[in-house]
Write a structure and sequence with these properties.
alpha/beta, TIM Barrel, CBS-domain, Alpha-Beta Plaits, 3 domains, 24 helices, 21 strands, cyclic-guanylate-specific phosphodiesterase activity, Cyclic-di-GMP_PDE-like, CBS domain, EAL_sf
């Protein structure tokens, strides 16, 4: 049994100061890494390095450790030790992606040697600045914005990316965000916790996402612990996720995302979020492989000077993928960036003979060869302007397959969006009544068997009356997501009739199991939308016109289902009438349920 961690409040200030000095002098720190993942692609964007003091020390907690370091004016020394150990451990583990390192504003502003120290440590560990994100925190207010801007500019010129931590309090004010123009913005976890049931938090996060899109920043949702919060964040447009729900900080983290997390990400994917859902054959048969072609590539052993010569010899080249001996993609080099850097004073003297990996971006846009056009359209939402010129890299079984032009991808996505948006529902962007009828008529004329399900929310009006239309929209979006995730997108069709009504045309043989899955997942997910009072009461309480309280059951989902055999139904209108009847039958059963019409067509 391990000994309890000493409580720092039991120690005198002198004892704590001595303990801090011993930790710094002996580098007695343990580094843990927590992944930041891209929820759209399921890939690790990067890792935040987090330190712990000795397990038997009153300064074991990082919060206490840094509080004492600030109190005894030892922050810069402590941060230098954390930097050294983080870089060594990151290199030792061979982790791919970006490394997020926390530094106080004091270090960036007041430390004369800060830039040189961090650059020297990178070189000792064979890492480059473009692999590092400097994440700024603040222990006390900083009024010298000029000094802050000067320090940040110096870091950016060296090739470092910047991140603001805890947007919403302290240092991370909107004023300083605009002044810094960081590549990443982390939203304070206060606005993350319980966001699924707090409309003000939802509006705040949505505003941040909108501002970030204009400022060229990527938003990271930090401290995500609940599935319902993850789903709400993704609805608001936050797709870079960090938190215990994904993975806890770990001394030996897994280098890839676990299968259970990939399934979680897929189940919370808001397919309506970035582009109108189009389940046509074109959206699912055009893949990244179709858009890829062979291009020039660079090897990690190629020098910066040689890469500059390559770009100068071929002005049509916008970027070069960097591919190692195992045909793995390790990064991308941008022509504009290296040609600009090549004109800097002393660049050739310092970097000319060094590996081109010193000037590459380790986080290029990569698609698997089988990624569909629809999936690619979701993943390029909020795309960094630099990537438009880069294009994208395509891999097959993790190896380099080819490169694609962003203009080709955007044209294909645009064609898809124009087609699907003509009659799309404005909330979910799902096909509306006109394309639904067209799809039904096409299936009727094909003389093939299919199944149509009409989904409708039960007790939705009382929910809207009590929780408001904004929460109601989120329930509709939840329903759209569950339906989209449950169908077979190769052969099934999903449409939004309007309001809380949806239609699914199934060609899947296992349609009944899919419907059961939809209803089961809905019953679990919907609970997060209710207050504790509503759940305790077992329903939603409203008052009628006479002031009498009425208890309405919780929101549920019903479906009327009509199997269609060849030559049995002539028109979409006839089928619609049958669906309306079966839906009424389904709604007679309390809770989420479905009813299948076994009678066949009327004579």
């Amino acid at each position: 049994m391990s000994s309890p961690i000493p409580i720092y409040s039991d120690f005198t200030q002198t004892q704590l100061s001595i303990e801090l000095d011993q930790i710094i002098e002996g580098a007695q720190l343990t580094i843990h890494f927590q992944p930041i993942i891209d929820a759209n692609s399921g890939q690790v964007l990067g890792w935040e390095a987090l330190c712990r003091g000795p397990s038997d020390s009153p300064l074991h907690s990082p919060l206490v450790l840094f509080e004492m370091a600030a109190r005894f004016n030892k922050l810069s020394k402590l941060e230098l030790i954390v930097l050294k150990k983080s870089l060594m451990r990151f290199k030792e583990l061979g982790l791919a992606g970006l490394l997020f390192l926390n530094f106080t504003v004091d270090s960036v502003v007041t430390s004369i040697n800060f830039h040189r120290e961090i650059f020297d440590e990178l070189q000792l560990n064979g890492l480059s600045p473009n692999q590092i994100v400097i994440e700024l925190t603040e222990t006390r207010a900083t009024d010298d914005l000029f000094a802050l801007e000067r320090g940040i500019t110096g870091l950016k010129e060296l090739g470092f990316s910047m991140a603001i931590d805890d947007l919403g309090e302290g240092f991370a004010s909107l004023k300083r965000w605009i002044k810094m123009l960081p590549q990443f913005v982390k939203i304070d976890r206060h606005f993350i916790d319980g966001i699924h049931k707090d409309t003000l938090k939802q509006q705040f996060v949505k505003s941040i996402v909108d501002i970030a899109a204009k400022a060229g920043s990527k938003v990271i949702g930090e401290g995500v612990e609940e599935e319902a919060d993850l789903r709400s964040l993704r609805i608001q447009g936050v797709n870079l996720i960090q938190g215990y729900l994904i993975a806890k900080p770990c001394y030996e983290p897994l280098s890839t995302v676990e299968t259970r997390i990939l399934k979680l990400l897929e189940s919370t994917r808001p397919n309506f979020n970035s582009a109108p859902i189009n389940l046509s054959k074109k959206a699912n048969t055009i893949t990244a492989g179709n858009l890829a072609h062979k291009t020039s590539v660079a090897h990690p052993k190629l020098s910066c000077k040689d890469v500059i010569s390559t770009f100068q010899a071929d002005r049509r080249l916008n970027s070069l993928p960097v591919i190692d001996d195992q045909e793995k993609v390790v990064g991308v080099i941008r022509s504009l960036e290296i040609l600009r850097r090549g004109t800097e004073k002393y660049f050739n003297e310092i970097f000319g003979a060094r590996s081109c990996t010193n000037i590459m971006d380790v986080n290029p846009l990569i698609f698997d060869v089988s990624t569909t056009l629809r999936s690619m359209s979701e993943m390029i939402s909020g795309l960094d302007d630099r990537l438009v010129a880069d294009g994208f890299i395509v891999t097959e079984n993790g190896r380099y397959f080819g490169s694609g032009k962003m203009t080709d991808l955007l044209k294909a996505v645009s064609d898809m969006q124009i087609t699907s948006a003509r009659y799309a529902n404005p909330l979910t962007q799902l096909p509306g009544n006109v394309p639904i009828d067209e799809q039904i008529l096409e299936n009727l004329n094909s003389q093939a068997a299919f199944v149509v399900a009409y989904f409708d929310l039960d007790n939705f009006k009382p929910f809207n009356d009590v929780y408001g239309y904004h929460a109601g929209d989120h329930v509709i979006l939840l329903t759209a997501t569950l339906l989209a995730n449950a169908i077979n997108q190769e052969c099934d069709f999903l449409g939004h009739i309007g309001g809380d009504d949806f239609t699914v045309i199934f060609k899947s043989a296992d349609w009944q199991a899919r419907i059961q899955t939809i209803l089961s997942k809905f019953d679990k997910a919907i609970l997060s939308f209710f207050s504790e009072e509503t759940l305790a009461a077992g329903g939603i309480i409203t008052q009628n016109r006479q002031g009498v309280e009425i208890l309405h059951p919780l929101v549920s989902l019903s479906a009327g289902v009509v199997p269609v055999k060849p030559n049995t139904i002539s028109t979409p209108a006839e089928l619609s009438s049958m669906l309306a009847e079966t839906k009424k039958m389904a709604k007679k059963t309390p809770g989420s349920s479905y009813f299948v019409d076994r009678r066949g067509p009327k004579n």
